[in-house]
Specification:
The chain is built from seven helices and twelve strands. 22% of the residues lie in helices and 15% in strands. A five-stranded mixed beta sheet has the order 1-2-8-3-9, with helices on one face. It has a domain of 225 residues: Zn peptidases (Aminopeptidase, 3-Layer(aba) Sandwich). The structure holds zinc ion.
Amino acid sequence: MFSNYQYTVTERFLRYAQIDTQSDPLSDTFPSTARQKNLGRLLVQELQAIGVTDAELDEHGYVYATIPANTDKPVPVICLCAHMDTSSDCSGANVKPIIHTKYDGSDIVLPDDPSQVIRAADHPYLQGKIGDDIITASGTTLLGADNKAGVAAIMDAAHFLIRHPGIRHGAIRILFTPDEEVGRGVEKLDMQKLGAQYGYTLDGGELGSLEDETFSADAARITIQGVGIHPGTAKGKLVSAIKIAAEIVAALPARPPRRPKPPKDAKVSFTRYVYREPWKARRSILLSVILLPRNWKRMSSCCAISWKQCCNATRRPAPPWR
Ligand SMILES: [Zn+2]
């Protein structure tokens, strides 16, 4: 069955990666950027073409679709979920994915900016991929594997199941969401309409890994107003907003307390990512405090390569979880 199947995941991924779906943390609209719907529209067309007839893109940018049940057994409805947007921290326009066939274990130099090198020594994970094909960006943009790899995997799974009706299964709901990278991905989600009892988000790390809990993270925005005054008469009067901010940051626990577990009857959970605001250090500053999730290292592992490339490219400091 598998040996005869022509996988479509790679060509799908290459196609989706070239569609700019960056979300915008500063936008008040939903979805935060209209361009995310461009991928949504394509996914609906492709789902309908393979026979998933109820595929639809709603006004908020969610794609809902169903692979109908082909068994009479009373089995739960499950959901396969992935987000369509990409991070706002690095350009998602004009992405040129490159396939490095039969990876030989050496450093990978990205051609559009040869200073961008994915070093095997920095990514021990790559040693387990020798002989495999590896897809990277070209050096000036993100790749968008987070999470178009998940989108492509779900699309190929749908294609496979439709082509192989002998595989018995219950109803499978497909959900593609916008704005996950800006922490708003489930804001307008209609859980009633989704109608799934269990959900799997394909947005993770290594092949075969499964995470059975997720986190809640939140952000607080604090504006600190200092007191500016001429240095000649400043003694006892000048108040540095930056110093107050430093005191607040220093008072935060290095290891946040364990978050409470979700209620036992929570059936579907979705990841929400944290994001940072830039520091603005003048007389008054805007301070964004991020409460890092307890298992933040694991949760961000899927972004490892793209984050590094992204931060190098833009000369910004690495995010705190790298
Ligand atoms: Zn993701």
